[in-house]
Design goal:
Strand content: 15-25%
CATH architecture of one domain: 3-Layer(aba) Sandwich
Number of helices: 11
Radius of gyration: 19 Å
Bound molecules: nicotinamide-adenine-dinucleotide, thymidine-5'-diphospho-beta-D-xylose
Order of helices and strands: EHEEHEHHEHEEHEEHEEHEHHH
Strand order of the largest sheet: 3-2-1-4-5-6-10
CATH topology of one domain: Rossmann fold
Largest sheet: 7 strands, parallel
Structural class: alpha/beta
CATH superfamily of one domain: NAD(P)-binding Rossmann-like Domain
Number of strands: 12
CATH class of one domain: Alpha Beta
Helix content: 40-55%
């Protein structure tokens, strides 16, 4: 059995591959373009069951070759940062929409038996109260989430039209080691470890549900191995916090005070709250997050403390981009 995993030089895909390689299982081929968000340091490249291919999911010829050798595809590759989609959306459409369609076409022609598409809770848009189940209306509001919703619909269309066994997951905000230091938790932690200020958007009242990346990866694996074709599964974390509450916990974990917080202009079109109802994954697949948020956060902060060599070059590159 060979599993083609796209985008696995990034945060979540690399955690998924490391998880699969920890026990007996399939051979894995990673397809990743190595954009600013991808790093070979995230993968155990010398593992005998792992092959790494650098390339773009929009490269139809390469995709045809890899899908013809793959039994399953798990598709993580995406442009993933909301703020970048606000300053420029074209890469989001090219990778998330056109790239996903290229991969679906390759999977169909190559005879792939199962295609897991990794989506996000953001496709439901902001949910002021209650939680979105899988039947909830898709009302994405940022260019990022609109591009993810488009790719979800394309994935489901390949199931309905062509009978391709597509399964879609929609998860909440992931946290954990190896997350690129532009997302709020690693950005704030690394700024605090460096003695810098942290930029809290608006009043800090926006709410996110936090999911440990390893819990997410277990959920994805349950969907790949036990899910049903054509189905969507929400994967939640069970810890909803306002950004202000999260910032308080991060300050505490890093031994810093509120004077290190700078209130900055709010994100344009900032969604107030996401919340997914993940009872379907619990009831059908036995999914349940195992990580307690406080200890998961403490371990994550420790990881960033111990791995400056991983994140310092990434932050330098982002600073150069903005210079
Ligand atoms: P990430 O930005 O850390 O990694 C993305 C990876 O995709 C990188 O390695 C990058 O090099 C690769 N990539 C980008 N464009 C590519 C292309 N055209 N061809 C091949 N590879 C390409 O992202 P992440 O946080 O690990 O997110 C993984 C997936 O999970 C994404 O689909 C994202 O939308 C989804 N998701 C993420 C979160 C989160 O909290 N991070 C939450 C919900 C859903
Ligand atoms: O500097 C910041 N200050 C701040 O207050 C940043 C970067 C973020 N924030 C706020 C905005 C959000 O309300 O923190 C919250 C989390 O922001 P991000 O880490 O950028 O994540 P979010 O926008 O919620 O999107 C994430 O979860 C869903 C991932 O980046 C997406 O890929 C995923 O689909």
């Amino acid at each position: 059995m060979n599993v083609l995993v796209t985008g696995a030089a990034g945060f979540i895909g690399s955690a998924y591959v490391r998880m699969l390689l920890r026990s007996d299982g399939p051979t894995i081929t990673v397809l990743d373009k190595l954009t600013y968000a991808g790093s070979l340091d995230n993968l155990p490249l010398d593992h005998p069951r792992l092959e790494f291919v650098q390339g773009d999911i929009r490269d139809a010829e390469l995709v045809a070759k890899l899908t013809s050798q793959a039994d399953h595809v798990v598709h993580f590759a995406a442009e993933s940062h909301v703020d970048r989609s606000i300053s420029g959306a074209s890469d989001f459409v090219l990778t998330n929409v056109v790239g996903t369609q290229t991969l679906l076409e390759g999977a169909l022609r190559g005879g792939v038996s199962t295609f897991v598409h990794i989506s996000t809770d953001e496709v439901y848009g902001s949910v002021d109260s209650g939680s979105s189940d899988e039947e909830y209306l898709l009302r994405p509001s940022s260019p990022y989430s609109a591009s993810k919703a488009s790719s979800d619909l394309l994935a489901l269309a390949y199931h309905h039209t062509h009978g391709l066994d597509v399964r879609v997951t929609r998860c909440s905000n992931n946290y954990g080691p190896h997350q690129f230091p532009e997302k709020v938790i690693p950005l704030f932690v690394t700024n605090l470890l460096d003695g810098h200020q942290v930029p809290l958007y608006g009043e800090g009242l926006n709410v996110r549900d936090w999911l440990h990346v390893d819990d997410h990866c277990r959920g994805v694996e349950l969907v790949r191995t036990q899910g049903r074709p054509g189905e969507v599964y929400n994967i939640g974390g069970g810890t909803e916090l306002s950004n202000k509450e999260l910032t308080g916990l991060l300050l505490e974990a890093c031994g810093a005070d509120w004077d290190r917080v700078t209130h900055v202009a709010d994100r344009k079109g900032h969604d107030l709250r996401y919340s997914v109802d993940w009872s379907k994954a619990r009831e059908e697949l036995g999914y349940r997050p195992r990580h307690d948020f406080r200890s998961g956060l403490a371990e994550t902060v420790d990881w960033y403390r111990a791995h400056r060599a991983w994140w310092e070059p990434l932050k330098r590159r982002v600073a150069e981009e903005h210079a």
